[in-house]
Amino acid sequence: MSRLVLTLWARVGGNFSSSAPSASVSTFRPTRFRGLTLAALTVALSACQVGHDFQPPVNTVQVDWLPTQGEQAPSRPQATPIKPRWWEVFNDPLLSSLIDQAGDANLDLKIASTRLEQSRAARQVVAGNQLPSVSAGMSYQRARNSGEGLLDPAGVNGKSAFNLWDGGLDASWEVDLWGRVKREVEAADASVAVADNDRRGVLLSVQAETARDYLQLRGVQHTLAVTRDNLAVSRNSLELSNARLASGVATDLDVAQAAAQVATVQARVPLLEQRQAQLINALSLLLAQTPRTLQSALQKPVDRTPLPAAIPVGLPSELAQRRPDIRQAEARLHVAAASVGVAEGDFYPRIVLSGNVGFQSLQLADFGSWGARQFGIGPQLSVPIFEGGRLRGMLHLREAQEQEAALNYQKTVLRAWQEIDDSMSLYNASQLQQHTLQEAVRQNQIALNNAKEQYKAGAVDFLNVLTVQQALLASQEQQVASATAQTLALVGLYASLGGGW
């Protein structure tokens, strides 16, 4: 095709400048014909476009969307549309308020938004190459030329200085014969999509992290409440041991064991309180607030609400449109594919149409007169002949980058399926574990009540009471941890599904 361009160029080439105003009309017809021929050639060749058109990858992975193995828990995933505000499944107005505030104030999200604006601005810069560039200028110069040189516009043989007034318009436009500039704009559009999905990913991460920190905070507060309840029980046992010691029916060993149990349970409280403060500060940071700002609003525990029996998780066919990382990987692949076209376009000739019109005079009074006019118009052709392998190396680089982007897309999709499957399994397992631990707590509570009654009656020593009480505390803490893990698994499930886009 480059040989065709050079041949046609030779046929339509010529002098595009005009002579004096008195020239006949016939003098301009060949020039106009050449100009029209060049314009027609430009339009015809502009349909050519280097590179290959991007085709979104087709996901051929087939995975069971819903868990089908093992015992099924009461709350199950269901293939129904996900609500945009997926966190409302927890039925906690305070959590919803915190996520809304994080969406408005989070600094990571604002940083991602500025990156998106930068990408859009960069796209605007690249798109400007599709349009002509026009500039205006005006200059004045007091100069003196050499009398021995080649140029003396003043005609005084360098014997005196002169004034030079110059001004006009300059215009240039690269004829995108091969679609190289179009590929650059296509790559810039895809880069905007990369930045947009990066922001979506940050937003989803902020929402999920806010939910995780909040739910962990509630779990710590429930554990703290259980610990304090057990501390009260331990103190009651210590009082009972002291009373029995005073009555002569208990020993110092019983009292020492009861006192040790009180100290052991009480030692758990400071660490739990520290963890509570740490999570509140983490939520404050997500909301771009200073530490302890949310102390008064979050320090009071709230009761958990039961999760619904059906958890909407959407359809498998919607995954690629919902997960920001998959959308971003596809956009990166699009950038790489368009960049291959740009690299191919560098092998072809470039044609730039340029022109200028203006005035130049030695006297200000003559500036703007008919005799001071000047203009020039014509094309510029550049053909790469020898680049030392630079162009071919760049093309190989872009092709390798496209292969890497394709493999990264495949990896991203497989990782998404793995995360979803793991999250669904964890959500189901955490429910089953919690159900079992509820029964363990109930039985340990019965055992503790019986052990205390038998201890009062002198049928058993205090070691039996101590052992059962420790078992009760452990099972209660496990139950709270399991309930927290269940809610965290649900957050992880929605995060792996890409939220509710």
Q: Can you walk me through this structure?
A:
The chain is α+β, with helices and mostly antiparallel strands and 501 residues long. α5 (180-246) packs antiparallel against α7 and α10 packs antiparallel against α11. The protein has helices spanning 2-12, 25-45, 93-105, 107-127, 180-246, 252-266, 268-286, 295-298, 319-322, 324-345, 390-456, 462-496; strands at residues 76-78, 133-143, 162-175, 310-312, 350-361, 373-382. The strands form 2 sheets. The chain has a 4-stranded antiparallel sheet, with no helix packed on it. The chain has a two-stranded parallel sheet with strand order 1-4. It contains 12 helices and 6 strands. Mean pLDDT is 83; it is low at 1-34, 36-40 and 42-46. It has a single domain (50-131, 177-348, 390-496), classed as Outer membrane efflux proteins (OEP) (Up-down Bundle), CATH 1.20.1600.10.
Give the biggest sheet.
4 strands, antiparallel
Please provide the count of β strands.
6
**In the CATH classification, which architecture applies?**
Up-down Bundle
CATH topology: Outer membrane efflux proteins (OEP)
User: What's the CATH class, please?
Assistant: Mainly Alpha
| C-alpha Rg (nearest Å) | 39 Å
Helical stretch count? Answer: 12
Taking all residues together, what is the mean pLDDT?
A: 83
Number of domains: 1
Secondary structural class: alpha+beta
Strand order in space, largest sheet? 2-3-5-6
Terminus-to-terminus distance: 46 Å
What's the CATH H-level homologous superfamily? Outer membrane efflux proteins (OEP)
Fraction of residues in β-strands: 5-15%
Low-confidence segments: 1-34, 36-40, 42-46
Shape: elongated
GO molecular function: efflux transmembrane transporter activity
Pfam families: OEP
Membrane topology: Lipid-anchor
Protein name: Efflux transporter, outer membrane factor (OMF) lipoprotein, NodT family
